[in-house]
Amino acid sequence: MTADHVLRALRAVSAERAEDALLSVRGLTVRFRLRGGREVAAVTDADFDLAAGECLALVGESGCGKSVLASALLGLLPGNAETSGSALLDGTDLLAADEKTLARTVRGRRIGLVPQSPAAHLTPVRTVRAHLEETVRALTGTRRGERRAAAEAAAERAAFPAGHLDRHPHELSGGLAQRAATALALIGDAPLLLADEPTTGLDRALVDRTADELRRHADRGKALLLITHDLAAARRVADRVAVMYAGRMVELAPADRFFGAPGPRHPYARGLLDALPEREFTPIPGFPPELSDLPEGCAFAPRCARATEACAQRPAFRAGVACHHPHGAPGAVRA
């Protein structure tokens, strides 16, 4: 099969996936305008589809743009942000929707959010039980006499202990606040769940339980976008893995291929796995570039052992990878 045939086949698969997608993101770009005319290129040209029943894990180092991408989908960016591209959710372009539409018909109802900083999303003067019961009322219309039981059931799904339901946010540990936020996100049974670092502050047993509950959300015919540093959690529940670096997606692959054989194709993605204690435990050298001062070419080149002169040009995203020298490519540079 020729390269042209392969590309045509990949485009056909992509088109078929887009038709079946619950969420279809094309060219999503976010820029933050700063004083003095500077800008931060937080997300650049993100493309992906997410189908009902599927979990996509979005991984990468801190500051690579993962959480900004999620905030863009919910219209929760600060005033100095400029977005472009499209993000279609059941026919609604989330990037073009006004605040009234997002607040009344999207947030909580069509997209549930497990936020990265849950304590900042909880009202300090209300107990966890009050938060849960109010969310049950607003999103499900449950009658007053049944809200208490519904709130307790939501807490149980997120492994939030019943004995802490009458505590206020400042009385919770980081892990408890995380579980409270997860319970709140699950109440609306939204078609799409965005979970931004949902296992932060949890021990391994609770990480696994939380990941499994989020996976069950997808298994009930919903979609899950899991943003995480925890590659073990991603491996446990993801169908596909998207890797971001310096604001760009650099690889998108099936989870079984990514975590198994033949492994990631992008050198950065492979480096993330090799840095795990159960693997080679080898850190990626150097540091990510500042998003306000990105190079013209491949942003990973200064840290990459496979870099050549070709990397002075920014690689296009083709066949699931943005790299001039991906692993497994014919004639690829040997590491």
Query: What are the low-pLDDT stretches, counting only 5+ consecutive residues below 50?
Result: 1-16
Number of helical stretches of at least 4 residues: 10
What is the CATH homology-level superfamily of the domain at 1-96 and 230-335? P-loop containing nucleotide triphosphate hydrolases
CATH class of the domain at 1-96 and 230-335, named Alpha Beta
Secondary structure layout:
Elements: H1 3-20, E1 21-33, E2 39-51, E3 55-59, H2 66-74, E4 81-89, E5 92-93, H3 99-106, E6 111-114, H4 128-140, H5 144-157, H6 174-187, E7 192-196, H7 204-219, E8 223-227, H8 231-237, E9 240-245, E10 248-254, H9 255-259, H10 267-274
Parallel strand pairs: 3-8, 3-9, 6-7, 7-8
Antiparallel strand pairs: 1-2, 1-4, 4-5, 9-10
Helix pairs in contact: 4-5, 4-6, 5-6, 7-8
Verbal overview:
The structure is a single chain. The protein is of the alpha/beta class. It has a domain at 1-96 and 230-335: Rossmann fold (3-Layer(aba) Sandwich). It has helices spanning 3-20, 66-74, 99-106, 128-140, 144-157, 174-187, 204-219, 231-237, 255-259, 267-274, and strands spanning 21-33, 39-51, 55-59, 81-89, 92-93, 111-114, 192-196, 223-227, 240-245, 248-254. The strands form two sheets. The protein has a six-stranded mixed sheet with strand order 6-7-8-3-9-10, sandwiched between helices. A four-stranded antiparallel sheet has the order 2-1-4-5. It starts with a helix and ends in a 61-residue tail after the last helix. Residues 1-16 have low confidence and may be disordered.
